[in-house]
């Protein structure tokens, strides 16, 4: 890609749109970002960042096995994602090892299993695209799966958004007034596994956790209202995806890494300049001028 | 309108035991409370106070014994919104992005439809509850910007909005200002007159003498239970606190 080929901002944005694969990548990544961003509010408030990391890494062997057997990769990923959480719970309960140690132990074990399986199972799996994502080379069947899973997660989260907020905030009260906390716990885990599955296509297994926590963390610094937090989280995730893909197109950079870096920069911006919770507290600076 | 239960007990706990993965937290505990009674739950940290609350709300399962709430199971008490739990200030995430209004509205969730869309009656219940705890000026204030006392009142309002007949309060007086303390004690009298049953845990012996008709002293099991004037003796308190004399704990009685 010649740097001098974009002379105006207009061509910077429109030129890539002439490519079919770019249009698909932009659309799919925005969708995935929206789903992960939505879920991200809940995960950050629940304190499940490490859990998100664990689940997203643990889906690796599931993806490999599913590819080898010719099954939808989301099915394999889902089974291993939820399975890893069950295993974490089991080991924690039955041993004296602390929870964060158990989480680290289980997900690295699953991840290693996935890598070993890739090297042993003869198939056309591209390890690189699983690890680092390949939004520019997404296939038609993957597109269908992604749309289906994304809609499913968005619908589930939309129906139970208030219950999930209550579950994150005060599970004891939820239980006391007869709300099924057990169901909500597994609903959130299920959505987490599904979001990890669609997210890994955009940015890959290693970085998918960023999609699940960074937008939520950014939004948390910018608002004190839960609904606003969800909206900001989704928007910042989508914007990051668009920026990441454009930048990777023009400067020939790794796409997944670019998307996550864009998210990180938006977080840093919020960290420094958020009106109330930023280091420089923009509001106060402006107030000083008056 | 409260329906008068023929059994006449709001809370009946019979020989209940709770263990967490084999570790006994509470055993052979009994409690019977009637409408309009206020009972203090007193014990050391780790004596099973929170466990007792958890068992009554159904947050943990009991391994032995029986709990009846208004003569029915804990499960149906949950469905009927019978019990409200007011957490300790330390027990909640004060940085959660949520306003006073939203927290109090959570008291209505159990009786709303699946999408938790507030009806006119829910909005009115929330308004009334917030007025009773004197937080009408703070409807949309995030809970992170409230003082400890205001936050405590927010959760009390949630319990009021829930219209529960049983209130469980975990350390209602810890970390609150004088104004809130006064408001809570006024509310207690109103609750009592409305026939609500209150079980509260506290570290403060003065509050027990002041508010509680009954007192339940526990140390993994019931040490003593009965009328405050009869049961709340230095000997019983010493036993409850593992042999430490009440003089040492609370200063000599004046």
Automatic annotation (TrEMBL), chain A:
<dbReference type="InterPro" id="IPR037294">
    <property type="entry name" value="ABC_BtuC-like"/>
</dbReference>
<dbReference type="GO" id="GO:0071281">
    <property type="term" value="P:cellular response to iron ion"/>
</dbReference>
<feature type="transmembrane region" description="Helical">
    <location>
        <begin position="143"/>
        <end position="160"/>
    </location>
</feature>
<keyword id="KW-0813">Transport</keyword>
<keyword id="KW-0812">Transmembrane</keyword>
<feature type="transmembrane region" description="Helical">
    <location>
        <begin position="65"/>
        <end position="90"/>
    </location>
</feature>
<keyword id="KW-0472">Membrane</keyword>
<comment type="similarity">
    <text>Belongs to the ABC-3 integral membrane protein family.</text>
</comment>
<feature type="transmembrane region" description="Helical">
    <location>
        <begin position="102"/>
        <end position="123"/>
    </location>
</feature>
<dbReference type="GO" id="GO:0055085">
    <property type="term" value="P:transmembrane transport"/>
</dbReference>
<keyword id="KW-1133">Transmembrane helix</keyword>
<dbReference type="GO" id="GO:0043190">
    <property type="term" value="C:ATP-binding cassette (ABC) transporter complex"/>
</dbReference>
<feature type="transmembrane region" description="Helical">
    <location>
        <begin position="25"/>
        <end position="45"/>
    </location>
</feature>
<feature type="transmembrane region" description="Helical">
    <location>
        <begin position="229"/>
        <end position="251"/>
    </location>
</feature>
<feature type="transmembrane region" description="Helical">
    <location>
        <begin position="181"/>
        <end position="198"/>
    </location>
</feature>
<dbReference type="InterPro" id="IPR001626">
    <property type="entry name" value="ABC_TroCD"/>
</dbReference>
<feature type="transmembrane region" description="Helical">
    <location>
        <begin position="204"/>
        <end position="222"/>
    </location>
</feature>
<dbReference type="GO" id="GO:0010043">
    <property type="term" value="P:response to zinc ion"/>
</dbReference>
<protein>
    <submittedName>
        <fullName>ABC transporter component</fullName>
    </submittedName>
</protein>
<dbReference type="Pfam" id="PF00950">
    <property type="entry name" value="ABC-3"/>
</dbReference>
<feature type="transmembrane region" description="Helical">
    <location>
        <begin position="257"/>
        <end position="274"/>
    </location>
</feature>
